Structure formats: structure tokens, C-alpha cells
Amino acid sequence: MVNSSEQSVGSKRRVTILGSTGSIGCNTVDLIERHRDSYDVEALTCHRNVDVLIGQARKLKPSFVAVGDESQVETVEDALAGTGIEVGAGREAVIEAAARPADWVMAAIVGAAGLLPTLTAVRRGAMVALANKECLVCAGPLMMAEVAEHGATLLPVDSEHNAIFQVIDHERYDLIDCITLTASGGPFRTFTHAQMTSVTPAQAVAHPNWSMGAKISVDSATMMNKGLELIEAQHLFPVGPERLKVLVHPQSVIHSMVSYVDGSVLAQLGTPDMRTPISFTLGWPRRIAAPSQRLDLATIGQLTFEMPDPERFPCLRLARDALQTGGSAPTLLNAANEVAVEAFLNGRIGFLDIAKVVEDVLNVGELKRLTTIDDVHDVDQDGRRLAKTACERMSRADRVA
Ligand code: NAD
Ligand code: MG
Questions:
Q1: Can you give the pLDDT at residue 8?
Q2: What are the CB-based long-range contacts (under 8 Å, 24+) for 369-377?
Q3: What pLDDT shows up at residue 401?
Q4: Would you say residue 2 has pLDDT above 50?
Q5: Region 169-185: what's the mean pLDDT?
Q6: Taking CA atoms, which of 66, 246, 377, 391 is between 20 and 30 Å from 15?
Q7: Starting at the edge strand that comes first in sequence, how are the strands of the sheet with 64-67 ordered?
């Protein structure tokens, strides 16, 4: 997975941020502003959040900005008139941003919408900092084959995978006993099943340790996030699903661990601030300074651990089953989850319905081998259609009750 990059160490790195207005995107912009002499910005993209995009473009002076939602583009064109910054609109413009010549591309679009832009950067053989875990979940084997074919370098941003990347022996997976992904347990870690029936979107997005976008925050609350991360881990570090473990660690200090055959366990620790793993990928193969709070273990005092509860967090089981089944199952899981999370955030279904929607879709969706990106797209669309039907059924049942 680690390939040589054309950019020589020490020279100025040209970077693009796909999804620059989101949580990961803004943290990336923050780091670039702190290391202004080391980076030039080629392109920035957003979906709708044009005010943030305009502010970032004025500060970072990219060559190109892309607005996914075409209805918002005039505001950006007006605001950036006379700056020399090119402005594009629509899905094609986001893909163009990824195609432009940057050494390093942050893939921080949320959901399967990030697949084609990320793949476009991979196909150029770029260094791709991968935050967008959904694209590996829905198209992992195809993505990894393209990474190898085009000599791209995939640098995991997800804190767990970034931790593993830092401590794993990339050459000798045979010397690894297991990989343990740590999980905070989310805001409902201690809730009973009965309490979880009535939790609100506002409660679900209030993560105890991390500040993140709405979708991943809900995924953390259902623990689907850890399920998606199991699938992500199997593609990035293919040690076999049975050697991938999950451990709840509420303080989010140990970001993941690799256990070796001699009994040694290597872990990466730090305060929960995504600027640490992002800076690791920005500087790679060197390290650059990040402003994250320093870890003070004496003040924290105690680190605790517990096993995840499969009864209260069924999404974890659903994701593990999808990983074992392979083929189109993870693609269906991801599509159903994206639709269900959106329905929950919009108040159309309850929190516990998210897992039910995903399970329904996995039960009825067609299982098949995926050989092309078009296959992934078709299964993704099928999964979304089935999930919308399931959400409507659940919201009707709720109104009747
Ligand atoms: P976010 O919702 O804060 O930001 C998402 C970004 O994607 C925004 O810039 C938005 O404009 C853009 N976007 C949304 N829909 C789009 C579409 N259809 N087309 C083009 N652009 C679109 O999300 P986030 O929390 O920054 O997460 C981004 C990705 O990183 C997700 O895949 C998430 O799982 C992963 N991740 C996030 C964190 C975190 O701490 N936030 C940690 C680990 C992994
Ligand atoms: Mg993570």
C-alpha cells in the first residue's frame, strides 16, 4: 500500500481538499494555514456550504474551487470575481478538482458521494489522505486494485487506521496476532435499550470526545462507525476478519493497537483531535507540528476498556456479517445506513430503526460479485431505494402506533 511518491521530501507540496468545508476539511485547512510555506493549494470543494468555501478560497488562494450543488455556484462566482480563482459547479467539477495536478489529495467528502472523486485522485497515482471511509466500504476491493495499478499512496486519516498505519509492520502481516480497533462507545454507551428508543438527533450528534460531521456522529452513536471501520481495516490491512477486534475505550486516548506473535502490543496514543492524524498524512513520510493538546496521562489518571455490547449495538454485528459475506453486502450496508441516518436526522425514523433498515436491506438486497465501479453504483442505488421503502414503512408504523 505504501508506494513511492513523485514529490521529493522537502519541496513544497501541492494539495487539494475534497470536502474542504466539513469537519475534516476545516481541520486540514487549519493545518495548512499553520504551515503556509510548505503547501500550495490546487483545489477546494464543497457541496452547499459556500460561505465557508469562499472564506477558505480567499485565504488559501487555490487555482480552482468546485461547488457540488449547482444552485449555489453564482454566490461563489460573484464573491471570487477578479481573484483569478476558477469556479466550477456540479458533480463533474468536484471530479475535475480531484483530477487536477496536486501531489496530495484529502478525500474528506462524506458518504459514497466521495467514491468517484477519490478514485479520480487514485487514478492519477496521487498521495491520497483517506478520511472518506464509505468509499472503501462500498468499493474496497476495486479501490485497492486501482491503488496498486496506478501506484497511488493511500494514507489513512481515520484515527484508528492512522494509528495502525503508524505501528504495523507493513511487510510482515504473518507476524501479527490481531489488530484491535478502539471505540469510544459513543454518547449512548451506557444507555439501556429502552432509553435508546427515544433519543433525539441532537443527543446522537453530541459526541463525548470528538467533534465531527453529523453523519459520522450518528454512526458513532449506533456503533455502525466501528462496523464501517472493521471493513475499512480489512481493505487497508488485510489480516483477515477474524483477526480484527473491537474494544470499547471511552477516553479515546489509545487510537488502536497491533498485537504481534511475540506478545508485544504496539499502540498509538494521543488526545482526540483529528489534526494529529491529518498532520501525519500531510507531512508523510515526515512529521509536521500539529496544535493538538498534548497528552497528559497523569491528569487523565485512568484508561478503561470494555467489550462492545452486540445486543444494544446491532450495527456492529451487521457490519461484521457484511464483511464476512463480501461481494455487494458491504455496498448495500453502506447505502442503507446513509439513507437511514439521514431519515433519523430528519426526524422520520427513530434511532433504533437505523439498524432495522440496514438489516431489512441486507435481507432483501441482491448479493452478487462486484467487478466494476458501475456494479458498485447499481448496488448502491438499489440499496438506497430499498432503504427508502423501509424508512417509509417504519415512519408509517410509527404514526399508526
Ligand atoms: P462533514 O459532514 O463535516 O463534511 C462533509 C464534506 O463533504 C463537506 O465539505 C460537504 O460539503 C461535502 N459533501 C457532502 N455531500 C457531498 C456531495 N454529495 N458531493 C460533494 N461533496 C459533498 O463530514 P466529516 O465529519 O468531515 O467527515 C468526512 C469524512 O471523513 C466521512 O467519510 C467521515 O466518516 C470521515 N471521518 C471523519 C472524522 C471526523 O472527525 N469528522 C473522523 C474519521 C473519519
Ligand atoms: Mg475513526
A1: 46
A2: 369/327, 369/328, 370/139, 370/141, 370/142, 370/327, 370/328, 370/331, 372/142, 373/115, 373/116, 373/119, 373/139, 373/142, 375/328, 376/115, 376/138, 376/139, 376/142, 376/331
A3: 64
A4: no
A5: 98
A6: 377
A7: 86-89, 64-67, 39-46, 13-18, 104-107, 127-130, 153-156
User: Whole-prediction pTM value?
Assistant: 0.96
Taking only the tens place, the pLDDT of each residue in 195-235 is 999 999 999 999 888 889 999 999 999 999 999 999 999 99
Tell me how far the alpha carbon of residue 43 lies from the centroid of ligand 1, in angstroms: 16
Residue 200: CB atoms within 10 A of its CB come to 12
Average pLDDT over residues 176-181: 98
392 φ, ψ (degrees, to nearest 5): -65, -40
For β-strands 265-269 and 254-260, DSSP reports them as antiparallel
Please tell me the residue having the least CA distance from ligand 1 atom 23.
213
pLDDT tens-digit map of 142-164: 999 999 999 999 999 999 999 99
Cβ(152)–Cβ(127) under 8 Å? yes
Torsion of CA 359, 364, 369, 372, to 10 degrees: -90
Q: How far apart are CA 397 and CA 401, in angstroms?
A: 6
Atom 41 (ligand 1): residue with closest C-alpha? Answer: 212
Q: Which residues pair with 98 in a beta bridge?
A: none
Q: How many CB atoms lie within 10 A of CB 396?
A: 10
Angstrom distances, CA of residue 194 to CA of 184, 201, 337? 21, 16, 22
Q: Does the CB atom of residue 117 touch ligand 1 within 6 A?
A: no
Tell whether ligand 1 has an atom less than 6 A from the beta carbon of residue 334. Answer: no
